[in-house]
Amino acid sequence: MATDQTAASQDPDLEGGRPPKSMTIGAVCKGLAQEFPDISISKIRYLEDQKLLNPRRTPGGYRLYSASDMVRLRTILRLQRDEFLPLRVIRQELASGRGGDQDGPVATSSNTSVADKRKRRASVSVQDRGALYALEDVLEETRASPELVKELEDYGVIKGEVRAGTHYYDETEREIIRAVTELARYGVGGRNLRVFRTSADREAALLEQILAPQLRSRNPERRREAVEALEGLAATASHLKYLLLVRDLRRITS
Question: Is 0.70 topped by the overall pTM?
Fold first, then answer.
């Protein structure tokens, strides 16, 4: 039976030596492999299942990716790798217009407010955990090893939950695993992540202290406003931490 990778021979745009107007999933995977070594056909299909991609289908059901599909996919992968954004936030980023330029964020229109730009730059959601993912799916999606996930649990970096004997992790924890998998290539393990967890715990405690009265209010409207303020402060703190890190790294390389 033919697969998506072999569909090229059945599409007239891909025959006769003419430049292809679209690419098969195998060609897409090969084309992105240098920049994203962990890319796989199953991962691309997963992103499609999550409604982040919508490639054209031939009458035979084969996926064909256009140039704009490639740009969108590259943007998704960069947002995952470079900004560690969960798919829910990436979906919001794409809906807001990000992803039209393969070399960076699309230019915003002149009437786009500064607040909107900041919101897109660092989006934080503390209420919605998103979907839960079984350990098997997390391992396939992130390419992490079971030993690494166990180590992260032992050091309290992630917790997960067990349902009917199966371990599940929410979207944030899955992205933590993905980020740590990248670091693990350089010998960074769970024991080295204490500095990250300690920093996050201190930042969370500070933000809680700032908004504690509002968060504990019996007034639903006031609590809702407090949660929104908490998300805004978290986004600002995250960006500040990023800027401080860039500053220090420049010192190292100067």
Answer: no
Please answer whether residues 86 and 175 qualify as being in contact, where contact means their C-beta atoms are separated by less than 8 angstroms: yes
CA atoms of 68 and 27, how far apart (whole Å): 15
The predicted structure's pLDDT at residue 136: 92
Cα dihedral angle (62, 58, 76, 229), rounded to 10 degrees? -120
Per-residue pLDDT tens over the stretch 89-132: 888 888 877 654 444 443 333 344 444 444 444 456 666 666 78
The mean pLDDT value for 42-49 works out to 89
Token pair, residue 134, equals 């079984």
Q: First and final CA of the chain: distance in angstroms?
A: 56
> Of 126, 153, 128, which Cα lies nearest the Cα of 230?
126
**Strand order across the beta sheet in which 132-134 lies:** 132-134, 166-170, 161-163
CA distances from 126 to 172, 228, 233 (A): 10, 9, 12
Beta bridge partner(s), residue 166: 163
